[in-house]
Every structure is written in C-alpha cells, then in structure tokens.
C-alpha cells in the first residue's frame, strides 16, 4: 500500500533559491568591498605593477574562500540552490580564481623585476629563495593550474570521476599553502588589527564550513541513524530497489526528490560513493533507492545482503516541493529518472500530471506504483514509449497532454539529452523559467 503525503504548500512570495542566491551575491560583494577598504588603508607601493599584483592576490584569497563555501555542502544552501548549481558556480569561480592568481604572480614578479633590474624568471627564483612563503605560493599556484587543467571540459570528459576527484583534493593543500603565504608576506594581512582579524575570520569561516558540511555533519548523522540494508528487491533484470532502515529516521531531514551519496560498506565497495535519489518519500521508518545497473558499482547492488552497513552523506538537492510556485504540477520523467519523480508525486498536493518517457513498456520501472499512487492522488499518468526521437515530447505533444502547462510547475528528471529537449519545448510553450525545475544528479557537474 502506498502512503500518500500531502503537506501544506510552502509560502511562495519569495522563492527560497532567490533568497539564497541573493544572499551569496551580497556576501561576496560585501567582502569584496571590505578587501578594497583594507587594501587602501594599508597604503600603496611605489610600483604600480606591485600594487596591481597585491590587489589581485587579495581578491584571489577571497575567491578561494568563496570556493570553499560553495562546496561545503551546507544544508541551508544546498536545499535552496542544489548541489548541481553550487558545483557549477564553484567551477566557474575556479577558473576566475586561476586567472586572478596568475595575474597576482605575473604583476608581482614584473614589478619587483622592474625595481631590481633582474629578468622576470631570475626575479621569481630570487623571491622564492629569499622571501618566506613565496616558494609555498609557487607550489600552490602550480597545484591550482593542474586542478584547473583536469577540470576543463575536454579533460573532464576523459577522466573517471574517482581520478578527477583524487586530483581535485590537492586543492585543499593549495589552500593551506596559499594561506600560509598570505600570513608570511601579506602586507595587508598585518597592516592593522582589523585587517588581521578580518582575514583570520574569513579563512576560519570558509574552512570551518567545509569541515562542518563534509565531515562533522555526515559522521554525526551516520553515528546517530546507523543505517543498514533491510531488503534488496529486483524490479527487472537491470533495476533493483534497496530498502534501508536505521534509528530515529524521523529526525533525518530528507525530502522527496533529494539524493544521498551512498557507500555500502562491503569489502570491495566501501570506498565508492554514488549519488542515488530516493525513490519513495521518506516516511520516518525506511529509505528506498531504485538504481539501474550502469556500471560495476550500481550492478553490484543487486548482490547486497540485508544487514549490510551503509554510510550515507546527505540528503542533498533542491529538487523538492520547496521550489513550488504554482498550485498544480507536471512531472516529466525519462527512464530511471522516474525515481525522484515517483517520490515527489507522493508528497505533492494539488493536481498533477505525470509523463513517463521510456523506450519500451518493459523499461517503465515502478510503473505499477506510479499508477496506484496517481489513482490515490487524483493525478493523470501518461506512459510515452518509442525510440528516442525529439518529437515524442515536442511542444505540440506536451500541449496535447497538458493544455494548461504554462500555468503549472514542471519537474523534470531524465537523461541529459531528453532533459535538454524538454526544456526547449517548455520554453516554446511559454512556461516561465522559475516554474521549470530540474537537477543534475552528479558530483562533478
């Protein structure tokens, strides 16, 4: 029997993601202004190149701290903006940081070379050998260059996630080296008690956020809830549902549409984390994920044994009813992307239309549950089958299935190609952007 959840709709006067996004922009702008004031109060060097280099270095330090905040996985930000968008902002901020630090190194080197008469290479070597902290800064810049290279789109597509992630961890070493460089030689850092207090506070908040969101909170939640596999249920030859129990799950702040990073603590898979969505709304007693075999890790879930310990990081994601702007909804799922859609339908209030796009009826996992749930909720359910051609969910087809689609929220989850095609169709149908909700369930953007 499917449990129907119909919580009251949240207030929608100001969308939560707008509040969070505006808050981040305001925080960055305020800190940029503070950095400029502290820089001016410290006084200027006689060489314009050195002045520019120092200013670029300070803003590089600010961007580095902001980078850490974006990937700290703080629940307040993640639930409102989503890990996918935060990761995307982190990526583009990273490229800005790279160019800012390069400008810092180039301007400082050229400025001192102009004063000493040395050529730039000899000047850089001299600074590294004679000035405390400069060699650490050179190493930090080299590490950031490596991370930036492997994060470029052409390289990222050729690397396994585990390889990319391992290389990316060196960013934390670069942060530590850059901070010690700033402490050692940063004139603005020691120019006044206010400047020193500001920079220590900035770095403490940034590093503390990472420590809290990525280590302390996951450890505390897993110690508290002690998750274990309770059942493994094959849905078809390629798809399996894993049921998980634990202690005090009613205190776990998970919502329909969210996902966790799951580690199943078996001998051969304990080190591997995978992002899988909840396929049923949390009921305070159990959690369920439904996964299609797409690699060794997901295929191995079929062989999990009840009682297996689970380490879960999360819940993550903003693909929830918190984003609603309209009383009625359309839920569009492609293939196994139906898992968060099925969970959302369980929690939604108001009239809903569910469109499930699959190649064949055999691929329609959880369809019996969807049909039962749609009947209980008074929702309409459409199963769209056939080859993966754009016209299956083209504007005319969507308008036929949902004539008032422009007046509804649209939640969309499926393969990237289908998601992009449906978003184009929704734009052609005049669905406002704030009413279109989708999320990329990935770790690296």
TrEMBL record:
Q: How does it sit in the membrane?
A: Multi-pass membrane protein
The family database entries (Gene3D superfamilies) matched by this protein are listed as: Nucleotide-binding domain of ferredoxin-NADP reductase (FNR) module, Translation factors
Q: Which cofactor does it need?
A: FAD
Q: Does the keyword Iron apply?
A: yes
> Keyword set for this entry?
2Fe-2S, FAD, Flavoprotein, Iron, Iron-sulfur, Membrane, Metal-binding, Oxidoreductase, Transmembrane, Transmembrane helix
Supply one GO CC term from the record: membrane
User: According to its UniProt record, where is this protein located?
Assistant: Membrane
Membrane-crossing ranges are 24-44, 50-71, 92-113, 133-155, 167-191, 197-217
Domain (FAD-binding FR-type) ranges: 222-322
* One Pfam family this sequence matches: NAD_binding_1
Instruction: State where it is primarily located.
Output: membrane
Query: From the Swiss-Prot or TrEMBL record, what is one GO molecular function term?
Result: 2 iron, 2 sulfur cluster binding
> What InterPro entries does this protein map onto?
FAD-bd_8 (IPR013112), FAD-bd_FR_type (IPR017927), Fe3_Rdtase_TM_dom (IPR013130), FNR_nucleotide-bd (IPR039261), MRET (IPR050415), OxRdtase_FAD/NAD-bd (IPR001433), Riboflavin_synthase-like_b-brl (IPR017938)
Name of the molecule in the record: Oxidoreductase
């Amino acid at each position: 029997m499917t449990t129907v959840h119909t919580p009251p709709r949240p207030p929608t006067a100001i969308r939560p993601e707008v509040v969070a996004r505006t808050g981040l922009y305001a925080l960055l702008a305020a800190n940029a202004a503070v950095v400029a004031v502290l820089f001016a109060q410290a006084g200027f060097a006689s060489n314009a190149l050195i002045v520019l280099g120092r200013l670029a270095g300070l803003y590089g330090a600010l961007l580095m701290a902001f980078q850490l905040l974006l990937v700290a996985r703080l629940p307040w930000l993640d639930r409102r903006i989503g890990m996918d968008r935060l990761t995307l902002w982190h990526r583009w901020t990273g490229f800005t940081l790279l160019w800012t630090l390069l400008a810092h190194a180039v301007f400082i080197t050229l400025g001192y070379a102009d004063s000493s008469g040395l050529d730039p290479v000899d000047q850089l070597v001299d600074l590294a050998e004679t000035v405390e902290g400069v060699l650490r800064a050179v190493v930090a810049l080299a590490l950031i260059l490596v991370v930036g290279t492997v994060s470029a789109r052409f390289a990222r597509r050729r690397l396994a996630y585990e390889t990319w992630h391992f290389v990316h961890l060196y960013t934390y070493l670069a942060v530590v080296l850059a901070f010690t460089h700033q402490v050692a030689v940063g004139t603005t850092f020691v120019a006044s008690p206010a400047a020193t207090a500001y920079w220590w506070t900035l770095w403490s908040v940034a590093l503390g956020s990472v420590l809290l969101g990525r280590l302390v909170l996951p450890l505390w939640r897993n110690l508290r809830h002690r998750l274990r596999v309770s059942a493994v249920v094959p849905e078809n030859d390629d798809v399996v549902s894993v049921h998980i129990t634990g202690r005090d799950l009613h205190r776990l702040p998970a919502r329909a549409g969210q996902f966790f990073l799951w580690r199943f603590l078996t001998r051969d898979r304990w080190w591997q984390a995978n992002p899988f969505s909840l396929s049923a709304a949390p009921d305070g007693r159990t959690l369920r994920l439904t996964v299609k075999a797409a690699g060794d890790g997901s295929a191995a879930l079929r062989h999990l044994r009840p009682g297996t310990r689970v380490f879960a990081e999360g819940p993550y994601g903003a693909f929830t009813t918190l984003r609603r702007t309209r009383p009625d909804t359309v839920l569009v799922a492609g293939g196994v992307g139906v898992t968060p859609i099925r969970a959302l339908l369980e929690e939604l209030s108001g009239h809903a239309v569910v469109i499930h796009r699959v190649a064949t009826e055999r691929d329609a996992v959880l369809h019996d549950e969807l049909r039962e749930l749609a009947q209980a909720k008074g929702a309409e359910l459409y199963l769209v089958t056939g080859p993966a051609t754009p016209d299956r969910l083209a504007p005319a087809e969507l308008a036929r299935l949902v004539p008032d689609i422009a007046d509804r929220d649209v939640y969309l989850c499926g393969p990237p190609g289908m998601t992009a095609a449906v978003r184009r169709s929704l734009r052609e149908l005049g669905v406002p952007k704030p009413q279109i909700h989708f999320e990329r369930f990935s770790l690296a953007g």
